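User: My instructor asked us to take a sequence, write out its structure as tokens, and then describe one feature of it. I'm not sure where to start. Here is the sequence I was given:
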Amino acid sequence: MRHISILGSTGSIGTQTLDVVREHGDIKVSALSCGRNIKLLEKQAREFKPSLVSVWDKNDAEELRVKLADTDIKVSYGMEGLIESATIEDADMIVTAIVGMLGIRPTIAAIKAKKAIALANKETLVTAGHIIIPLAKEYGVPILPVDSEHSAIFQSLQGNKHNKISKILLTASGGPFRGKNISELKNIQVEDALKHPNWTMGRKITIDSSTLVNKGLEVIEAKWLFGVGTDKIEVIVHPQSVIHSAVEYEDGAVMAQLGTPDMRLPIQYALYYPDRRTLSGKRLDLFDIGQLTFERPDTNTFKGLSLAIMAAKKGGNMPTVFNAANEKAVALFLDKKIKYLEIIDIIEQSMNEISYIDDPKVEQILETEKITYDFISKRW
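Assistant: Let's start with the prediction itself. The structure tokens for your sequence are:
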């Protein structure tokens, strides 16, 4: 029986991971962690009976201890609690579903503890891929992608270990503002940007999808996961979200993974890899869809994608600057403190102003994040 620990169990990926666990009943949950949603975490803990739960805040931990006093569940908190959840002895896989660079240290700890990684926290590879990937190879730890696009690429690579890749075709829905120009985006409100046409996701990633920043982050993630340069990753806007991504081989053959926009599928594939299991839900009906269409991304209007590729090519701490600036800018937008188009302005100015570090260590990555946050706070 597989034993898992979920970092970020109350978020979109975390709750859907537990949906898969609930449906099959043959995976043991060893640990759960979340940020502040202790009401849901308590409910999850009572249902799945992990030996450990972890929250970020000490006061929340104390409150949760009282709530779970009738159980044998240990309650931890902070980074120490996250790392404890990531290295808990009886878990053989860690699902990293927390948002942001908070995932770097627990992921490193999990790798050193030789836990398989089901990776949904893209920021870990975006900012520290040069550390994480060599470390995983050193410890012989598999990193199984949970993002729908990277899972699709991973699935399209199966059985082709010895064949050369010509390019990766990374698909994007285009988000809610596909086809709009700059002038049409000037007065976009938070509520508009949160209306994704195909996927149900968390607030931050939904905004990232609308700006194409999310696709830029996925380009950087794909670079590290699959060992290819950005020149071999082609982003294709595919509004129907049926082809989740594809791989073109040197002979011109293209292998793709198709399916409904259901995140449980890539989650389940990672949890049970290399096996496939029955999964409830709607099946893909190509007759019902009728046609599949494809477009080139508009990088003049949606500059976040081109800025991400620039950051990837420069390397060093620049992807961290890109990611941190976006995190801060999206938070400001969600709080209605800046306009929609200012998200990209903030990212670009941060990339121009923050000092470059060629081969940053973890401490320098986290310091770059802090410097970027401070830079933005003083200007917006």
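For the description part of your assignment, you could build on this observation: The first strand starts at residue 2 and ends at 7. Try explaining in your own words what that tells you about the chain.
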